Amino acid sequence: MTWTLDLGDLDDLARGAALLGTGGGGDPYIGKLLVAEAIRANGPITILDPEELEDDTFVIPTAQMGAPTVVLERIPSGAEPELALAALERHLGRKAGATMPIECGGINSMIPLVVGARTGLPVVDADGMGRAFPELHMETFSVYGVSGSPMAIADERGHSVVIDTAEDNRQMEWLARGITIRLGGVAHIAEYPMTGRQVKDTAVPRTITLALQVGRAIRRARETHVVPTDELARTLSSTLYSNLRVLFEGKVVDVERRTTEGFAKGQATVQSAPGQPELKITFQNENLVAVLGGKTLAVVPDLICVLDAENAEPITTERLRYGQRVRVIGISTPDMMRTPEALATFGPGCFGLDDEFVPVERLSERESASI
Amino acid sequence: MTWTLDLGDLDDLARGAALLGTGGGGDPYIGKLLVAEAIRANGPITILDPEELEDDTFVIPTAQMGAPTVVLERIPSGAEPELALAALERHLGRKAGATMPIECGGINSMIPLVVGARTGLPVVDADGMGRAFPELHMETFSVYGVSGSPMAIADERGHSVVIDTAEDNRQMEWLARGITIRLGGVAHIAEYPMTGRQVKDTAVPRTITLALQVGRAIRRARETHVVPTDELARTLSSTLYSNLRVLFEGKVVDVERRTTEGFAKGQATVQSAPGQPELKITFQNENLVAVLGGKTLAVVPDLICVLDAENAEPITTERLRYGQRVRVIGISTPDMMRTPEALATFGPGCFGLDDEFVPVERLSERESASI
Q: What are the S-Me-THD-like C-terminal domain coordinates in residue numbering (chains A, B) (predicted)?
């Protein structure tokens, strides 16, 4: 169903996007401010259900890329992703009929909405990651045969770079990352130009709606004094993300974090009580694996989310701090993100992890998580 | 005068180009092989005198960029610069009527000839550096108001990147260098697209001819048993490069060299006799400054060239070795490269040197060089 997104939806959407960002995706708070400004100036945004998209509509996804740690210090004006879209349209000699997110997490749930509000383009309710991932080839578009190239990168001065690596989406990521680093660590992009048919065949559907549902569930739980993760589990059970497991609860006792090679990389340690086994969460922008005393509780591409233990507010990797009381949850990804092709693109081995992918719902059958 | 370059010219041209490269510009031997192959396949190349260029001819210079140390290990096929030209033509929607060198040194005297032979385009007898420099904004085109953007970078797989930083040629260099590093340290480019009028207003004229004259002078000296630097000085006295000074003669006793940030950077030490003051030559791809016992003998943008003491063969920075007997010479650059605007772009301060620019002919009046 095609629907309209307005100012009143933004708090819930940002909260849900932060959770689906699994620690990464860039700060959704900043994105929310940009969307709010764009809606106030231009009116509400049309969210287009992928099934209602014409096969021949030309869709250009838009996003921010870079290290989330840098986004906190270098806030975009809102014009940059539109400049990237315009640079790609100019290069292709063809106008987009819609934009959409490349990932449904953090600021990248918001960037296409900013573009939609500013240009009047509808935003397709779907994305290419079904969560957030750190690299541009880690998209279901790529897994299922769409070329990311040509892609455009733009900065706030109107400078642009167009990269064309034909079918090689990994090389596109490699070159785009180099440019993003030289632009100061954050840039805005337009990539994976494709038809409506390709969107329907390769995107994870209705993830803007999903983010809203997740955000609303957390709010509802707070208002009704229900345990937020119970409310979340109920909400997710009827979606493509049907399994939620509480993995651990405790205090953040250590965060090691470096902004390196254009990413925020590191590890967080969570302790339930002194002397007890500690939960280690390794991240590259996003949370990749959660290990308790040598046992893996959840691993990428399943979602690992760190929530405030009190109010279930999602905590992004760049905002993790010593002393935070947190509840760590695992959520199953949709089946299309667990196929052999998908795991070859964004499974544990793609991040240098030794783990085999095992679904979070099976890991939690094997091991009873200490809570 | 427009003339034709054929196989018989290539040895002299490569030798002259190596000298004008002032230690950098990439290995001309590899470039010579590429041009010879292209001429054998396609016939001789038309060299177009800049004064005979129509004002509205569309000229796109072509070149290789990267660290000369890498070129030795990663030899191009010859197709790459043509792919860069084609990528820029496609982006602009306009075909070039001629190509030309961006620098008259090393391999970059040869790359546009490869393009000329392969495409049939004439090659303008002029360039944008009057020697070799390590960075893309260090061109007389840039000094006198031409935008380097849009520029294209291509690799051997047909991948391409188009960079558009509007008037900001330094930022163009910064982004292009990042891409070149990620392409393995060497790439091929098409940049500073401009009119024939702009070529005439901003290029250093007749530097392909100059390289040929220099290469021939060295050969002639060898054949007639004349001191090569005397023969060279005679040849240069009637050109825009009218002053040659022999700065030092001795043995290379140390070479410190790193391939870093996409450049070959380092320092060579030359000794005339044990216990005597040593000549230190600092380089960033090209030789930047020659200092003898604390006294500067020549500094960028004047040319500092290291020649084999016996046969005056030019030695590039990546081929400097312990034990080589060398004669180091300084050559004055044309006046258009010594203006305040020019020195602000490629004077000593642009390379982090503390030296003020003083012409080599005045430095040699002040100090009598020890030979």
A: 168-360
Contact of B168 with chain A, judged by CB distance below 8 Å, is answered with yes
Put the strands of the sheet holding A295-299 in their side by side order: A295-299, A286-292, A278-284, A263-271, A244-260, A325-331, A303-308
pLDDT of residue A231: 97
Q: How many CB pairs under 8 A join A and B?
A: 59
The pLDDT value given to residue A296: 96
Which backbone phi and psi does A141 adopt, to 5 degrees? -55, -50
Min Cα–Cα distance to chain B from A141, Å: 20
ipTM of the complex: 0.88
Q: pTM here?
A: 0.91
Q: CA-nearest residue of chain A to B89?
A: A91
Whether the CB of B156 is below 8 Å from some CB of chain A: the reply is no
Q: Residue written as tokens 């991040």?
A: A351
Share of chain B above pLDDT 70, in %: 98
Residues of chain A in contact with residue B178, where contact means CB-CB under 8 angstroms, are 178-179, 181-182
A chain contacts of residue B166, beta-carbon cutoff 8 Å: 157-159
Whether B170 contacts chain A with CB within 8 A: no
CB contact under 8 A, B171 and A159: yes
Can you tell me the distance from the alpha carbon of B323 to that of A365, in angstroms, rounded to the nearest whole number? 71
Distance (Å, whole) CA B172 – CA B326: 37
Tens-digit pLDDT profile for residues A249-284 = 999 999 999 988 778 899 999 999 999 999 999 999
Nearest to A118 by CA among A153, A156, A72, A83: A83
Residues of A in contact with B179 (CB under 8 A): 175, 178-179
Query: What's the confidence (pLDDT) of residue B73?
Result: 78
Spatial distance between the Cα atoms of A310 and A320, rounded to a whole number of angstroms: 15
pLDDT tens by residue, A327-369:
999 999 999 999 999 999 999 999 999 999 999 999 987 654 4
How many Cα atoms occupy the beta-carbon half-sphere of B311 within 13 Å? 8
Lowest mean pLDDT among A5-19, A157-171, A319-333, B26-40: B26-40
Q: How far is CA B118 from CA B17, B97, B121, B128, B161, in A?
A: 21, 14, 8, 22, 22
Measured between alpha carbons, how far is B254 from B280 in angstroms, rounded to an integer? 9
Tokens representing A100 are: 């959409």
Query: Apex CA A107: angle with CA A101 and CA A112, to 5°?
Result: 35
Chain A residues touching B84 at Cβ < 8 A: none
With contact defined as beta carbons under 8 Å apart, do B207 and B199 qualify? no
Indicate the CATH number for domain A237-370: 2.40.390.10
What are the residue boundaries of the structural domains of chain A, listed by start? 3-205, 237-370
How do residues B123-176 score in pLDDT, each as one tens digit?
Answer: 999 999 999 998 999 999 999 999 999 999 999 899 999 999 999 999 999 999
pLDDT digits (tens, 9 = 90+) for B210-220: 999 999 999 99
Mutate to test the interface with B, among A88, A94, A156, A164 (most CBs of B within 10 A): A164
- Report yes or no: A168 at the B interface, CB cutoff 8 Å: yes
DSSP 3-state percent helix, strand, coil across chain A (nearest 5): 35, 25, 35
A163:B166 CB<8 A: no
Is the minimum CB–CB distance between B158 and chain A shorter than 8 Å? yes
Q: Is A57 exposed, middle or buried (0-12, 13-18, 19+ CB in 10 A)?
A: middle
Interface touch B164/A166, C-beta < 8 Å: no
Find residues 288-317 of chain A whose CB sits inside 8 Å of chain B: none
| Chain A contact present for B169, CB below 8 A | no
Taking an 8 Å cut-off on Cβ atoms, the answer to whether B161 and A163 are in contact is: yes
